[in-house]
Amino acid sequence: MSRGIYECVRCGHREVIDSSEPVLENGCPECGGDMVLVGFEAGAENAPNEPSVSQRIPLHTVHPAALPPAVEAKLSEFYVIEPRGVEGNVFVFEVRDVLEGDFERVLRELEELGYWAALKRRGGRVLLYVFPAGEVREDNRWLPWVFLIATIFTTFLAGYWLSLSYISLLDEYGLPGIRNPYVNALAFSISVMAILGTHELGHKIAAAYHGVRATMPYFIPFPSMLGTMGAVIRVKSPLPTRNAAIDLGVSGPIAGFLVAIPVSIIGLKLSVPVPVSMVPPTGGITFGENLFFMFIEKYLVTFPENSVVFLHPVAIAGWVGILVTFLNLIPAAQLDGGHIARAFLSERTHRYLTTAVGLVLIGMSFLWVGWLIWGILVLMMGAMGNPGALDEVSPISKKRIALALAALVLFILSATPAPISATG
User: Fold this and answer.
1) Rounded to whole angstroms, how far apart are CA atoms 157 and 199?
2) Which end of the chain is more exposed for a tag (fewer CB within 10 A), N or C?
């Protein structure tokens, strides 16, 4: 069997494995990420006494190969470099001068020749790593649509359940409002799907802009009060630059937030206030407030003082969108905020930050038990690390610094320390 050289798309770990599959999903022994085939060890056939398929062979057993002349010529157009060694199919050069500052162009033109590159700063030197480009498996065309339809169904059911509770409150207090549960349920489902879908579409557009391969959004159906656990896209190739990492991290939260704004305003206009004296002190669920909702309630949709506001399902959808923005912008691990933070921090410093954030979230569990779960998840994701961009040398543009600051403001506005609490 051919012995392939594999590299993890998440953490960059490389080793030789007795396989010729293009992608070994979740095969990285370091972080559990996908291992992509980037080349073959010289001497493809195994001897009878060689290790079994499942056995891993250290990288130092790989025989050096020559870099194609076309690739060397292309590199000379972009950099003044001196060779510093070869590890398997990874060619290491020290960069003396940069002739092309657009690393995305460098990566794009090298990929046309079948190679990828990484630009790193090591011990005061700028090193260029050149290695065979990995093959990316095509997406399943039908699975995203199956998940989409299932999530529409589960969010509609969740909206129907929320609508029944809302209508019963209208009847109990004799208040005007929309009493058709199907209309309310459909409005909730559309609102949630629009916020989550726009969030992931923002990521998808940013990925396409920077030439990063990413799947279509996968909505996650879940039978709960909200009907979903959110949506994700899977990035299948490395982030080229720190600017790209910031764009991908910021694009989703900003896009989703822009949809959550009108949804929240419309939902609050449909919500009903009831005097505190008429509301039983026990037996309900309280949704935690954030600065953005407080601003709306003060300047755009005012309610009488000393009243309890019963949220329309659409308002709950908007609230969920704000909470999703906050959770995604937590500056840790491989969350959106984590990618933004990693653009400014070294891998070691980012790992320390992730650990600190995880412990803080666990400590906040006295405010909401869900923070305990989130803290543990952050620590688990942090153990996988965040490899950052391929180019960690080129400076971050002023526009991206402004975007990162905008993300920080958005994080503060959407912060919800105690998302859900029960009364009584």
Assistant:
1) 22
2) C
- Is the confidence at residue 47, as pLDDT, over 90? no
According to DSSP, the residues that pair with 23 across neighbouring strands are 36
Query: What's the token pair of residue 323?
Result: 């909470």
Backbone angles phi, psi at 343, to 5 degrees: -65, -25
Find out whether 185 and 163 touch, Cβ atoms under 8 Å: yes
Which residue, 14, 27, 104, is CA-closest to 59? 14
The secondary structure of residue 364, as a DSSP letter, is G
At residue 136, the pLDDT reads 73
Q: Is 216 exposed, middle or buried (0-12, 13-18, 19+ CB in 10 A)?
A: middle
Residue pair 327/229 in contact (Cβ under 8 Å)? The answer is no
Angle at 45 between CA 41 and CA 51, to 5 degrees: 85
Contact call for residues 126 and 133 (beta carbons, < 8 A): no
Choose among 279, 270, 256: nearest CA to 316.
Answer: 270
Which is higher by pLDDT, 18 or 283? 18
The Cα–Cα gap between 55 and 372 comes to 38
Q: Residue 127 pairs with which residues in a beta bridge?
A: 94, 120
Residue 382 φ then ψ, to 5°: -65, -30
**Tens of pLDDT, residues 350-365:** 999 999 999 999 999 9
**CA atoms within a 13 Å half-sphere pointing along the CA-CB vector of 85:** 3
What is the rounded CA–CA span in Å between residue 314 and residue 311? 8
Q: pLDDT digit string (tens) for 232-246?
A: 998 888 899 999 999
The bridge status of strand 56-57 relative to strand 23-24 is unpaired
Q: What is the pLDDT of residue 55?
A: 35
- 3-state SS assignment for residue 188: helix
What six digits make up the tokens of 371? 């923070």
Residue 200: enclosing H or E segment and its boundaries? Answer: helix 181-209
Task: Specify the pLDDT at position 19.
Answer: 72
Residue 190 has pLDDT above 50, yes or no: yes
Q: What's the number of CA atoms in the CB half-sphere (13 Å) around residue 126? A: 14
In the chain, what are the helix, strand and coil shares in percent, each to the nearest 5? 45, 20, 35
Q: Which of 69, 414, 29, 56 is nearest to 260 (CA)?
A: 414
Reported as a single tens digit per residue, the pLDDT across 61-99 is 344 457 899 999 999 999 999 998 887 788 999 999 999
Tokens 């000393």 — which residue? 306
